[in-house]
Every structure is written in C-alpha cells, then in structure tokens.
Design a protein that fits this description.
Blueprint (H helix, E strand, L loop, with lengths): L1 E3 L5 E3 L6 H26 L7 H23 L6 H25 L15 H20 L8 H24 L28
Antiparallel strand pairs: 1-2
C-alpha cells in the first residue's frame, strides 16, 4: 500500500527497511567486514600470501561489504531486497571456500593456519561465509509485501543459482596449482604438499 507524500509523489511502505530486516542486514555487514579485515590481516600482519582461491574469497567479501554498506546507507533493503541482492555474492564465496576446504581435506593442498590458530585460513573462510549465507537467506526469506510470494521465492532461488554460476566461473578460471617441491618451512600460502620419493 502506498501513501501520498507532501510533494504529490507516492511512497511505498515496502520501500523502507523493517527493523528486523535492517538488523539482519547490519549483522551481515559486520560479518562481511570482519571477513575482509581478517583476510587482509593474514596478508598484511602475518605476511601470508593469498593463493588464487583466497583472492576470489577476498573479492566476494569486499563486494559484500560494498553492496551491504551502500544498501543500508541508502535504505534500499525493504522486505529483504538488499539481502536478496547480496545473496549471490555470499553463495559465491561459500562455494569457493567449500571447494578450497575440500582440496585441503583431500590432501591436494596444505594451507596456513588461520587467525588465532583456529583452524586453517580456508576453514575460517568457509565458516564465515556460511554465517553470511545464513543471515542473508533468513532475511531474504521474508517476502516483500509488494511482490507476489511465488515471484519472491523464484527470485531467491535465482539469486542462489547466480551465486552457483559465480562459483563455477571462479573455479574454471582458477590457474593450475604449482608443482610440489621441498619446502623450507610451514606454508605461507596454500600449496600442494611435498612428498619425498620413496627410496625403494
């Protein structure tokens, strides 16, 4: 329902962000900013090098900070719409992080420890993108009263599917891993583990 404003234009009641929706979007922004700060801290404070998969995840975190920050600043998040816009980015980061951890657990990669020694850097990334995805999915699940419920559900599914395409594009474009070689210390970048050839 819309109400006339003083200048003769109509302002939609759905255009304003509900307190609950705004709270979820702010929480997502805080988590995304923490993800970005943690990623930069690994490089700038701990002098670790980001591998291509790490760069993709950092880019998704940067994009989430920009989209959520501007969306909240301009108050365009009514009815979960801002979270719906950000959902493909969270899906993309989650998918790349999940593949990264899969490579690690399968023995194809060894990765540096994360902040405070809590798991590895990819495992921390997977956790934080899972939290981001959950927050945005919860908010976007609140259908906008100005849009038909079925259309909103289709848009939500489309946002996740778009995020899946971003994952595929990221992984297809990912450069091949370097050859494993004898290393002089613990990993400062995600790398294939070196296994000395058998002597017999």
């Amino acid at each position: 329902m819309s109400n006339p404003s003083g200048n003769g234009r109509h302002v939609s009641s759905a255009a304003k962000t509900s307190p609950h929706s705004r709270l979820l979007a702010i929480a997502a922004l805080v988590v995304a900013a923490a993800a970005l700060a943690g990623s930069l801290a690994l490089s700038l404070a701990l002098s670790l090098r980001a591998c291509p998969l790490c760069f993709y995840q950092r880019t998704f975190a940067m994009s989430l900070v920009a989209v959520l920050g501007m969306g909240l600043l301009l108050d365009i998040g009514g009815g979960g719409r801002l979270s719906l816009l950000a959902l493909p980015l969270a899906t993309g980061g989650l998918g790349v992080a999940a593949f990264h951890v899969y490579l690690e657990l399968s023995g194809a990669l060894e990765c540096p420890a994360g902040l405070f020694g809590l798991g590895t850097a990819p495992q921390q990334s997977l956790f934080i993108f899972a939290v981001l995805f959950a927050l945005l999915a919860m908010d976007s699940a609140g259908a906008d009263s100005s849009v038909a419920w079925g259309a909103f559900r289709i848009a939500q599914a489309g946002a996740v599917a778009l995020g899946g395409l971003l994952v595929v594009a990221s992984l297809v474009a990912n450069p091949p891993m370097p050859e494993a070689k004898p290393y002089s210390g613990p990993p400062d970048i995600c790398r294939p583990p070196y296994r000395a050839p058998s002597s017999h």
